[in-house]
Amino acid sequence: xxxxxxxxxxxxxxxxxxxxxLCWFIYGPHPLTLCLFSSLQGTRDPMFLTGVSFPPDWPVxxxxxxxxxxxxxxxxxxxxxSAFINFLGSSSFSVADFLQSKDQQLCxxxxxxxxxxxxxxxxxxxxxxxxxxxxxxxxxTADMHQKCTLVYESSHGRISDKDNGPIMNAxxxxxxxxxxxxxxxxxKWMLVREQMAECTLSFSIPKQLIALYIQEDTCRIQELxxxxxxxxxxxNLRKDVISRYDxxxxxxxxxxxxxxxxxxxxxxxxxxxxxxxxxxxxxxxHTQRMRVTCPRKTDSFYDVVTVGAPAAHSQGFKNGGLxxxxxxxxxxKKSTAYQCIYYPPEQTAKAREILCVVSQLQPHISALADQxxxxxxxxxxxxxxxxxxxxxEKTEQFVHALKDELVKSALLAxxxxxxxxxSKSQTSAxxxxxxxxxxxxxxxxxDSIPHHKEYDEEEWDRVWASVAKSLNCVIxxxxxxxxxxxxxxxxxPSHTLADVITSHSPAAVWxxxxxVLIQSLKECVAEVAExxxxxxxxxxxxxxxxxxxxxxxxxxxxxxxxxQALAALACGFVMRLYAGLEDKGFLRQLHAVGLVxxxxxxxxxxxxxxxxxxxMEVGISDLHRVTFRITEAASEEAVNLQPTISGRRDHYTVExxxxxxxxxxxxxxxxxxxxxxxxxxxxxxxxxxxxxIAERFGxxxxxxxxxxxxxxxxxxxxxxxxxTVPSECKFNFQETMNIKELLNTLGQNVVTKKRKNVEILWLxxxxxxRINGIRFxxxxxxxxxxxxxVTLEQCSLLRDEHQLNKDYFVRALDCMRRxxxxxxxxxxxxxxxxxxxxxxxLMAFPKYYRPPEGTYGKVDS
Length: 861
Prior knowledge:
Number of strands: 19
Keywords: Hydrolase, Lipid metabolism
Strand content: 15-25%
Number of helices: 26
GO molecular function: phosphatidylinositol-3,4-bisphosphate 4-phosphatase activity
Largest sheet: 11 strands, mixed
GO cellular component, one term: cytoplasm
Distance between the termini: 44 Å
Structural class: alpha/beta
Organism: Sinocyclocheilus anshuiensis
Protein name: Type II inositol 3,4-bisphosphate 4-phosphatase-like
Strand order of the largest sheet: 9-10-11-12-13-19-14-18-15-17-16
């Protein structure tokens, strides 16, 4: 008969660290032995107990004998030594006796080692704590004189409940689940389940993004080649820029090839954050959900995405992060403008925007023009009018985008870069400094706008105006067609527009006329698009030429940081969407004003972490360039439920597929593919010992600026929300405090000079949850400080929203940090169940961000 021994503490306080240490020490091929030791100080009538679940593959039979041994241990770190261990008593029972007992509960007497005396009692209960994929888990719980207060169980793999349906399991993998039972203020019990999972998007989003980077840079090379013949000076500069793009493409192709080889975990561990080929992958990206079940209340759940701060660790932070490097970059560009025409950042951004508009609208206009001609032959008046309206709208957008002085000036600059260019200054004295121009083969300086004595500066205006004229001719002819159709319908109601056009009446020739006008429109649009494309490519050529030697590396850094940030955002969006599919108020808010994505950062503003924060600020800000769109999946297979990305660096769209039944239940706006906006905001409060140095001797202006700027963004979103979404559809939560009051308090805190003001983080997180936002928590690795923040937030929610008994707050906090999902996260990252803190570091931490004794020790991470 096999025997399993469970050694339990005789103490009111839990010490799960001892459990982990001793289990690791004695676990082997023999029958499972679990030991839990604790201090003798406190009470001999303990409240604490531990739950025990047997692994599915463990050989447990009805005749299996289970032995409970109780030890007392003196305080200190030498508890393993036998001199500090005091055996109190033991008791045994079989699994059959337990399962056949009344109410599935046994009251056992603790006997001394020689079985000569009874020293106490132990109550063993069977508790049903949820279901896992292979069936129900039975929890054997030992209690000494008291009913249990904390229970935990661990489940690795999929959890079969309504939070984990097919669409969840397609994207979120390798779940770890922990379950607790806590007492409320009215002496009732709440059931709390933590679930942490990896996300397929950790790798799939970056790989798609790298492929898009390669595609975009390949197109940019072709655009530069399409500029045509240039003077020797400009041609040499173009060759140099093309060479740089070739270098980026080669490096990205190599990185993508390495990523395609990877198999195994779906996250990048913190110890790999400096790996060059993994620089596009977010660090330690996980989702965490806390589900709370209370008596006579609907279940509540709270989600957070944990991820290492998006930063370019492989490139280092010796010279700062993106925010500082970009500022320095713009200064150096101006100083090297003698080689080229200097365009400020807003103009290069405008050039990219125009290129994007042209690439999107030109094929759209061409397709609508062909559709108009086809509709004129086959359909009645109303479909023709609908197509014409769409064509009119898209053409007006096209013309409006190109009516920009940047396009006109860039066309002139490109003309001046052609071979054989003759400037006005060579034929007459310049009337102003802007008309001065260098020699034909020398660079165009930043203070000069080139002119050509034979170049008509109004030509561009006439070219794009011809587009509008062509459209007006098409509209006029369609109006005549419809008028003729109406007249014929009055005399012969059976006639349709198609009959009028295809008959042998004089109106039949109108089809040919319409065809000619449509072809003219398409040609005009193509000519304008080609000129605009070349001029904007020439602007971007200047940007590349004016960049310093570090320009290439800076672009790669920004690409890598954005990739990490986008992977995290996509993960959070998908999780929030899945959770809100049945919430009409949330869905209305989603398509009306979008969602807030609130990033909480715990980085310090000292040493290397300043650079990380500068990277993170730019990466989060760049997420403004992203929109989401919901599509219908081809099937419910996991491969068809994976989000996909399209676009280029100035704008990306993430498409999130849903199964047919879920997609059809969405509001019309979402099913029609309306772009969905996500507004990223970042709040940072450093909490470690380095932040102490920064606050006393350094500079925290970066943190202050970030918090103030993002508070204003968050406040603006709230105003938009209250003005757009009806009050009855706004929120799906029970408000305990007016959101406006929370915003006011947050605004006061971001301008208050207070050290380690973590209230900023609490308030921002609270506001985010109350407005249906997406929550993210980050530190350097999302492993240690992040774990302290997430567990604190969870226990605070239990206290504030679910009436957790105040006497259990610290106990619950310690329990989650010792045995919850976050210590599992540490184990997954560094193969050690220790948070990477030491005692001196923790002295600088805010009180509730300190882990319990025995759970920390300085470990390389």
